[in-house]
Amino acid sequence: MPNDFYKKILNDRIEDFLSQSKSADLMNHLGLRGEMRESGLGKLIEDLLPIDWGVGSGKIIDSNNCQSSETDLLIYYKKVLPPIFFRRDKGIFPIESCGFAFEVKTKSSAREVKSTISKFDKLKRMEIIKPWSEDTPEYKIKPIRVYFAIDSDLKKGDELNRYLELDSNHRDEPTIQIICVVGRGLWVYYNKENLGLSVKGIWRHYANEGNNEELLILLSIIINQLTSIVTFGSLDMKKYLLEAF
Hints:
Layout: H1 4-23, H2 30-46, E1 53-61, E2 71-77, E3 84-87, E4 90-94, E5 98-108, H3 110-125, E6 144-152, H4 159-166, E7 178-181, E8 185-191, H5 192-195, E9 201-207, H6 213-231
InterPro entries: DUF6602
Protein name: DUF6602 domain-containing protein
C-alpha cells in the first residue's frame, strides 16, 4: 500500500517540474528552453539520488578512446572513475561511472527519435573495462539509455510503435531502452537476464492513468536500479508510490 504523504510530496515536485517546463515555452531562445527542461529534470532526479550518485551533462568516454555524442543529462557514480568537469556539472564521464544517459526533448517527433537513435548508437557500441583476471568480478555498470519528452506530435498510435519502426536493431538490442513521454506513458525494455525469459527481451508499457504515474514509475526505476548496483539489494520504491505494486 502506498504512503500517501511520501507520494504527495514527490507528486508536488513533479508538478513543479512540469509547470516550469511550460514556463520555458515563453523563452524565445530554443537552446535556453532546452537547458531549462534538462535542468528541471536533473533537479527532480538529483533530489532523490543516493548520496554516492550525481547528475551531470556532457560526453561519455571509454578506455578505447571513443566518445559519445553530447548527452543532455546523465547520472554518474561518484565512487568509481571520476569525471572531469569544465564547469559545475558539465564535463566528460568515464562510461564505467554512468548509470543512466538521457536525451530530453520538448516534443517527441520522428526526427527527434531518429536523432536520439543515432546518438545512442555510439554509446551502445562503447565498451566498459574488462576484468583484469578470471578471478575478478565483471563490472556491471553501463548507462541505461533513456528518451524523455515533455510532449508528442503523435495524434494516434504510440511512441513505442514509432520507435520500433525507426530502429532496425530493436529486436536484438534496442538502442533506446526506456521511452517516457509525459501524459502518454512509459515503455521499458527488459532483457532476458532481468526476467529469466526464453526470448531476448520484452517491452512493458506503463500507461498514463493520471496523477503522473508514468513519471513516478520512471523515478522508481532509476532509484531501484542505482540502489541495486550499489547494494545488490531489491528494495522497490514503487511500493511507496503505487497501489498495484
